[in-house]
Amino acid sequence: MNGTLKRAAVACLVMFGLLMLNVNYLQALKAEELRSDARNIRNYYDRYDVQRGRITAGGTILAQSVEKKKGDFRFVRNYPDGKVFAHVTGFFSPESQSAIENSENRYLDSTHPDLLLRRASTCSPASRPAAPTSR
């Protein structure tokens, strides 16, 4: 094999190895840092991709998620009596949330472990109503 060709092949092999090391470093060691970086715009949009639960009091809806037909966000938080209950419900935004929106965040976005059985039971075939049969 030609010496120049051998050096070029070894250089390509070394660069490929360094590339694989860098990819593994980024995906394994720096993944959490990259995920929580403020410049990561996916986090901004992901917060509005989930339909959050309602906040109610005595049958009155204090806060709810409303699906949008157009725009960048799938769901937008709506506060029907916003000024009246603002000190209790707080707010929800891409950067943060406050009051009930903050303290009950895991329940509102359905990530709390207590909701695991409820989510699993709604996915099981036994919980679905039977399809109507035609005769």
Explain this structure.
The chain has helices at residues 3-29, 31-35, 41-46, 82-89, 99-103, 105-108, 116-123, and strands at residues 55-57, 60-67, 75-78. With 135 residues, the protein is mainly alpha-helical. Strand 2 and strand 3 (75-78) form a beta hairpin.
What characterizes the major β-sheet? 3 strands, antiparallel
Radius of gyration from the alpha-carbon trace, in angstroms: 25 Å
Structural class: mainly alpha
For the termini, the CA-CA separation is 79 Å
Number of helices: 7
Fraction in beta strands: 5-15%
Number of strands: 3
Topology order in helix (H) and strand (E) letters: HHHEEEHHHH
| Helix-residue proportion | 40-55%
Sheet with most strands: strand arrangement: 1-2-3
Mean pLDDT over the residues: 79
Uncertain segments are none
Shape: elongated
Provide the descriptors you would attach to this structure in a database record:
three-stranded antiparallel beta sheet, 135 residues, mainly alpha, 47% helix, single chain, 7 helices, elongated
Task: Briefly say what this structure is.
The protein is mainly α and 135 residues long. The protein is built from 7 helices and 3 strands. The longest helix has 27 residues, at 3-29.
